[in-house]
Amino acid sequence: MAASEESLRQALAEKQSAVDAQAHAVRALKARPGGAAQAEIDAAVEALKALKVDAGAAARRLQAALSNNGDGAAASSREAFRQAVVNTLERRLFYIPSFKIYRGVAGLYDYGPPGCAVKSNVLAFWRQHFVLEENMLEVDCPCVTPEVVLKASGHVEKFTDLMVKDEKTGTCYRADHLLKDFCKEKLEKDLTLSPEKAAELKHVIMVLDDLSAEELGAKLKEYGITAPDTKNPLSDLYPFNLMFQTSIGPSGLSPGYMRPETAQGIFVNFKDLYYYNGNKLPFAAAQIGQAFRNEISPRQGLLRVREFTLAEIEHFVDPDDKSHPKFVDVANLEFLMFPREEQLAGKSAKPMILGEAVLKGVVNNETLGYFIGRVFLFLTRLGIDKDRLRFRQHLPNEMAHYAADCWDAEIECSYGWIECVGIADRSAYDLRAHSEKSGVPLVAHEKFPEPREVEKLVIVPSKKELGLAFKGSQKMVVEALEAMSEKEALEMKATLESKGEMDFHVCTLGKTVSIMKKMVSISMDKKKEHQRVFTPSVIEPSFGIGRIIYCLFEHSFYTRQSKAEDEQLNVFSFPPLVAPIKCTVFPLIKTQKFDDVAKIIAKSLTAAGISHIIDITGTSIGKRYARTDEIGVPFAITVDSTTSVTIRERDSKQQIRVSIDEVALVVKEVTDGQSTWGDVMWRYPTHSAAHTEEE
Amino acid sequence: MAASEESLRQALAEKQSAVDAQAHAVRALKARPGGAAQAEIDAAVEALKALKVDAGAAARRLQAALSNNGDGAAASSREAFRQAVVNTLERRLFYIPSFKIYRGVAGLYDYGPPGCAVKSNVLAFWRQHFVLEENMLEVDCPCVTPEVVLKASGHVEKFTDLMVKDEKTGTCYRADHLLKDFCKEKLEKDLTLSPEKAAELKHVIMVLDDLSAEELGAKLKEYGITAPDTKNPLSDLYPFNLMFQTSIGPSGLSPGYMRPETAQGIFVNFKDLYYYNGNKLPFAAAQIGQAFRNEISPRQGLLRVREFTLAEIEHFVDPDDKSHPKFVDVANLEFLMFPREEQLAGKSAKPMILGEAVLKGVVNNETLGYFIGRVFLFLTRLGIDKDRLRFRQHLPNEMAHYAADCWDAEIECSYGWIECVGIADRSAYDLRAHSEKSGVPLVAHEKFPEPREVEKLVIVPSKKELGLAFKGSQKMVVEALEAMSEKEALEMKATLESKGEMDFHVCTLGKTVSIMKKMVSISMDKKKEHQRVFTPSVIEPSFGIGRIIYCLFEHSFYTRQSKAEDEQLNVFSFPPLVAPIKCTVFPLIKTQKFDDVAKIIAKSLTAAGISHIIDITGTSIGKRYARTDEIGVPFAITVDSTTSVTIRERDSKQQIRVSIDEVALVVKEVTDGQSTWGDVMWRYPTHSAAHTEEE
């Protein structure tokens, strides 16, 4: 481990000197007599930023290795790391269990002042990065939703978890949790376990999410699992709907639910939004808002909660043309991707260039690829470590049968790889479901310049024949046949005509069946059409804001020794963009004239729209720095004269000297992202006798 | 009416020439050789802004008079005006009934793209104006709330409306609505009504909100009111709780509600927030979020809905010191106030200087006054007409018994004067209620430099004697006695000792009772104290964001004739601060080179963070202006060359010519509020051959 630590240290040193060299290059460019081309400067600055991100990641990896402490007990080290982060977060009120004075409610959390500020910064950047940049149509729909809408979407029927009850006490448990906990405990604690049994239990954990209700129930019985607290027998499995139910109006006759996602509000408005967009495709609608899931037994802090903020985009596109004009802007991005094939082959995620992934068909289409790229940029700009971020493709059994392709942005934290953003091509499913249920056609039109004679594919499965042949699986086969593309259908038609039968893979069954000629009729009908009427496809990037924020907390957290080496100090290395407070103002010593200067500076910061705190307690400057490093404040202004002050950067602890008139503007520049700390370091004198952590 | 119209026209002309003169003065100051003092320029610019607001108001008054059409039928004119506004709002998707394709749900609305943008601008400004400016502690708590919290707050017991049911169909009605509608219809349509009866019905409408359940029920019976749709008899009155009820977790044993206000989330966190603030008072916490009220029969569009966004501030303050250090900043503001006395005397609201209102005790204390002033500034900067905004003090019977004083910011719209912000001094009620119920003391401490011998007031009402004397009213008398201030209590002690009895006004009973010596013991106990422990008072400004936005829509809406005089064009005169989109980009004619320039400009606007739309349809420029005036876009960039473009201001239709490189910065300057349109008009050449509404 010492060797590995050594190599990490060396990597860090190399990254840091690369940063220094590049910073020097940027300065030289800016100072070039006659001026450099803006494009050249921009490119150099971008390169500098990328190097800094690398350096940051290297530092964190070293930190992680050090905290692993060379003993390989990664799990307990992860626990300890998490405990340190969570303690800091709760103590500094980033978040706290809701209704704490009443002993709280599992799965409900409050964001306190710094957490709330981080959240509102993340959402503001989301609006800037997605809504504004792409001219999306943002909407804001209620949480209370009538039953009819959620029946159409399938949530009333299918949005359930399987539950069992302690037969004596009535306490409820999630069935899959019990099975997982049982397997894990056996594997960890049962020393008599045979290798075969161990392999079996590991397999169960792996396929847990794919077990049917019957399989799950059988396993619970087979292993003799009882209620964890009482050892009482458990009831049979039954589904529990995860929506909070309520009743709209006084009659008691209008059931409603708190929405489990924000997307449905967009789908039901498709017709109006399409009109608003001038009856043109593609366009995207977006919504930020609360969503609710009445979890059976919430765990994992902010990662699995009963109420959370979602930010969702529904991008409506012609199913025949999923190209994206701005795909070229993200095509050169390279990051960790984890395609289906690699997962099935037991490999791990690998760096891929996005453009190639789309070209090779690993990612289904350009629009889906474009959003994957934009999500990567969004997350890394927030401060997510790009080496602990991967895009994982759904396996066939994870995907809804209607979905064309689906990728999750997963972020690694102490709980493992966590799904934080889902990016799914949901095809036409949602709009079709609401069209059917409401009777209002949710379709798009493409007018032809002149009428066209078109051939229309007509697929008519013979339900009778299919029923006889496949019995209970008939429905799945029918759906699979109807869902064939024109190319597939015509191939089938040809094969059936020549050979009389054909092998046909039904994804939803996970197997290949044999289709006979009499089971399906496929034909091309001709007719004249003046326009094409079609249901748009939907590509849906859906962001779990709380999960992203929690992972960001973990990725930003590190500790460093106090100057006196007697204490470990906590730091959140938030980029200025998300830092809850951008800047602090400290008079160096308690005296009226410094307090007055501090107040003048505070006023100019407020005028510039920069959130800040002013601390005129007599505490030592080192303590005051430590206190604000712990909530991730990137810049500290120390008032040590009545004409100029120092600005200290949190992570490097470097200080520069700036005049009082300029200080608010300089802080604004570096927090708005117009300049980097490196840029301003070069413009202002370094404060040589820096205020130390000891003053 | 013609004379009045004439005088309004003249007033408008005067205001407009005052604006012109002041604008000239500002320009002259800025151009002064050697430069003018910044303070002088600032003052002149402020004066200009104020004059512009006046001119805007005068224009709107003229508009209102014109739409009244000289016939005095104000009510029907208000209806027509509202219909015009609401038609525009719904057609342009500012807001629409939710779940429209499923025939909607009464009292639930979606904000479409422009409405959503207005809302997010209003909330961003709220954060800037209140949270950032005052260093408030913002929190974000869940909507799902366990029953225990809302029992403590009193909502489970008291947050009800009185309802009656159609005895045959089961349809529910709000009892007070039925009574009000009955009285109104009688007054409007029954020509045989005696003057006495008419006076009685008017009185009923006036005191409607103060009627007890018994009185309301009696009136319904007395007037023989039946179900409006069926004429069936009605059930007896019964209370209906307005909270949406649900169940937390799978057991069905934990009732919960969707919060009816955001305030409780702050109160239950008082202890942590006080600690976060360094155990110092005063401080304010704030929260923006959804709140829910399961209205019996929602009416009035956005004004009475089942789900809405609240923005609430809880300012915690020492009850013995409600002074405010920044009160001086608002003391000179003058606006319409409507104190209790004026209301009781049948007078109307009158302009008052805020500082005087506090000095004279019309407003209870400086902190309450400070927030009234800040609310005034907030609303008028959003674009609320200051002449249609008043602060109305609650009458004694409107206020909770614990409240020290309460003022509503009411905005006049077509529905009348609407409560949009409540600003209440709620004393220690909420913190005490949660302390009691949770067992966790929610108190503040003031440490004394050295221990003090203090005299403590002890009031012990004799429940037995009071019960004998006042029976059912005993509880109210006990509470009123216990709530006496030290001064009141000592006066009572003296009077009881000298005279043996004393008249005592009990607010909650609305009458004066006679207190005998044996009914209460009042004494001052001495003891040594090291600190003072007390429950802070809470001053609560609470903003109904949807109501403010709806009133803003009405105040911003006007119509003007098209150039061809064949059409009335709709305009929303939103200030740039709240405008949903800041700017449009129009190529004058459809040609590739102008389209390219338009795209370059669009890119620079995005980079500058300015929301915009680009319209490259071949529609006439006049139509394109009209289309975006109707959603309140303040600036339009028209591309008519490849080097420079014009910027048009929405309300004045003035145009200036600006180079392509500068245009994004100029628009940023005027939308950020760094400059006014007047400022930039002076810097750039006016576009003489302005693109007209006819091109």
Automatic annotation (TrEMBL), chains A, B:
GO MF annotations, alphabetized: ATP binding; glycine-tRNA ligase activity; transferase activity
Residue ranges of every copy of the WHEP-TRS domain listed in the record: 11-69
Transmembrane segments: none
GO biological process, one term: mitochondrial glycyl-tRNA aminoacylation
Signal peptide positions (record): none
The protein's name in its UniProt record: glycine--tRNA ligase
Enzyme Commission number(s) of this protein: 6.1.1.14
Statement: the UniProt record of this protein carries the keyword Iron: no
Assembly and interaction partners: Homodimer.
Catalytic activity from the UniProt record: tRNA(Gly) + glycine + ATP = glycyl-tRNA(Gly) + AMP + diphosphate
Family recorded in the similarity comment: Belongs to the class-II aminoacyl-tRNA synthetase family.
Main EC class the enzyme belongs to: ligase
Organism (species): Musa acuminata subsp. malaccensis (Wild banana)
Domain Aminoacyl-transfer RNA synthetases class-II family profile: 83-576
Keyword terms of this UniProt record: Aminoacyl-tRNA synthetase, ATP-binding, Cytoplasm, Ligase, Nucleotide-binding, Protein biosynthesis, Transferase
NCBIfam families (alphabetical): glyS_dimeric, PRK04173.1
Protein localization: Cytoplasm
